[in-house]
Amino acid sequence: MDVPLAHLDRPFDYLVPAELDELAAPGTRVKVRFAGQLVDGWLLERTDGSGHTGRLAYLEKVVSPEPVLSPEVAGLARAVADRYAGSLADVLRLAVPPRHARVEKEAHEPPPPVEPLPAPEPAGWRDYPAGPAYLRALTDGRAPRAVWSALPGEDWAARYADAVAATVAGGRGAVVVVADNRDLDRLDAAVGAALGPGRHVSLSAALGPARRYRAFLAARRGDVPVVIGTRAAMFAPVARLGLVAVWDDGDDLHAEPRAPYPHAREVLLTRAQLAEAGALVGGYARTAEAQLLLETGWAREVVADRGTVRSRTPAIAPAGDDPQLARDPGAATARLPSLAWTAARDALRAELPVLVQVPRRGYLPSVSCADCRTPARCPHCAGPLALPSATGTPACRWCGRVAAAYACPECGGRRLRAAVTGARRTAEELGRAFPGVPVRTSGREEVLTAVPGGAGLVIATPGAEPVAEGGYGAVLLLDSWALLTRADLRAGEEALRRWLAAAALARPAGAGGRVVVVADGALAPVQALLRWDAGWFAGRELAERRELGFPPAVRMASVTGLPAAVADLLAEARLPAEAEVLGPVPADGERERMLVRVPRARAGALADALHTAAGARSARKAADPVRLQVDPLSLF
Question: Which of 24, 118, 260, 331 is the most exposed place for a label (fewest CB within 10 A)?
Answer without folding.
Answer: 118
